[in-house]
Amino acid sequence: MMHTAVGWHVELEFQEDDQHTRAAALVRLPDGSEVRGHGRASRHRVDANQPRVGEEIAGARALNELAMQLLTKAHDEIDAASGRTSHPINV
């Protein structure tokens, strides 16, 4: 049986104007560290103004950056604990 020891809460914040959406993602880890990711989206001038779509694109890009930073952090911790260089972690 698998037990959950911790939970993570990811925060996403957006800043928008008529053409651009910026997203910032933040996760606070149980070790006290914070990992942040950022994403952007731009609306082409002929596209309809759909703020939700801009949030989804910018948010996905911020979460993707956050995921890559978490993979790098985990990889570095594996190397530090083992004292050797391990194989890259692939997505």
Automatic annotation (TrEMBL):
What Gene3D superfamilies does the record point to?
Rv1738 (3.30.160.240)
Where do the segments described as Disordered lie? 29-51
Q: Report what the protein is called.
A: DUF1876 domain-containing protein
This chain's source organism reads Streptomyces bangladeshensis
